[in-house]
């Protein structure tokens, strides 16, 4: 076979693998299987031990391809993250992405050292390799399962899984450096280098991201050229930061964050154009990492590797999450439990496992095999139980079928609000006395083909198209203002409960009415004060407080906190067995429903 024929064969084989993977993704969506798992399996089947018979052991090429792909994926992840979302969960996600990664690595490293009979540093290297979670896997499974998580939980998982990759990558590289030159790098120097690389990466990301945003705003390029400009500039930031001995992966993620929140127009088109590049990077990386794996070698260390995976899922990750989130008092026990469980491992772990192979460390093949098994087990067990866990821990919002057509428009310069449009149906609640929430603003009305200001339009009428500005995380709550009344009431009952009352009701009155046990110091508090005490200053619509057989749900918010509370009966309790007290208390507690 000539060189030219070999090149053609490589192109044909690579394209065929991509096409098979894309076709298989249709089946994966139907069964809720992680797409990453599909491409990894296809890569393994095409490898030397599979029916494909492709002998591929170029770890250097895989590392170079993986670095480029990860840089683009992290840049895209930063582009899609809003400053408003980051501010709401900044402290917990930064703790999880740094301290959480370190704790997971140390705890899992101790277990790996014992299970695999390795020295301490090699065990910690195993822990560092599998310490980070995978954003692509989490987001794909949420979309495939039709799940919508409560905003705080969803934002925490998304930002953590994007932000913890740079920490895990840097930790792995430093450990490899320490193992190869232990005399020249003390533990203190290791910590110092970690801080320095993180600092340089952060500064480079801010400076580079600001420069990219200014370039996009001033040049006003075509959509396709804008995407190419952003990609090339992001890779430039990645490369220069690495040359300056900083974390290029952290820099490129922060650069994406800066660009996504500072570009003055066309962000939606930019993201749409980048989608194809991001998917190609993910597919290429997953297939190549699958080709590197050998099922024959994986079986040799399967049992201890399964032990490492089990320890990480049931001990290491939960302990790290509890240590990071519990002191903040922003998350309930169910939310912490869900975040602990949904720590999916993905391609980053396998990519990092190729670094010891490049450095030709002792036990490098074992580290790679264990990382591969951990990723597979995580995707199989945690990935397929995501929906079940969300419902079990009560963090999933009720499934809402789209009853009406919502139009979402790109809004140049908008950082924290979206412009959405709705057709006004004849029986919509907005026409029956319901008002637009204070956090949303009606901006214009299209009536009879004419664009009207709110003053010109006056009261909405059937057949209008209403356009509103609203925070992205709350847009779905506007849907029910424009839905038919029966369907809107049913959905709100499922989310907020059977009853609604003002938040100035005393907790003692609710406790007495339902026969609930509350602490003496909490009894004099109003429900608004009780929510403020439980959630401090991070209350969101849908936050819940359990009181025995009932759940109190934050239904409406004001500038001072909770304004209206929903009450959801979790089960038939003592209140329903005492009808006299029930009817006597209705007027005192609830007023109108």
* Biggest sheet, spatial arrangement of strands: 1-2-5-3-4
What is the CA-CA span between the terminal residues?
A: 79 Å
Output the radius of gyration. 27 Å
Poorly predicted runs: 571-593
The tally of beta strands, per DSSP, is 9
In helices, the fraction of residues equals: 55-70%
Word description of this protein:
With 593 residues, the chain is of the alpha+beta class. The chain folds into three domains: 17-392, Na+/H+ antiporter like fold (Up-down Bundle); 407-486, 2-Layer Sandwich (Alpha-Beta Plaits), CATH 3.30.70.1450; 497-589, Uridine Diphospho-n-acetylenolpyruvylglucosamine Reductase, domain 3 (2-Layer Sandwich), CATH 3.30.465.10. The chain contains 24 helices and nine strands. The protein has helices spanning 3-31, 35-46, 59-79, 83-88, 90-116, 120-129, 135-144, 151-180, 187-219, 223-243, 248-262, 267-292, 295-300, 302-325, 333-341, 347-358, 364-384, 386-392, 454-457, 475-479, 485-496, 507-514, 527-535, 579-589, and strands spanning 407-409, 418-423, 441-447, 450-453, 465-470, 499-502, 544-547, 550-558, 561-569. The strands form two sheets. A five-stranded antiparallel beta sheet has the order 1-2-5-3-4. A four-stranded antiparallel beta sheet has the order 6-9-8-7, with helices on both faces. β3 and β4 (450-453) form a beta hairpin. α1 runs antiparallel to α2 (35-46), α7 (135-144) runs antiparallel to α8 (151-180) and α10 (223-243) packs antiparallel against α11 (248-262). The longest helix is centred in the middle third of the chain and has 33 residues, at 187-219. It is globular. The N and C termini lie far apart (79 Å). 42% of the residues are buried. The model is unreliable at 571-593 (pLDDT under 50).
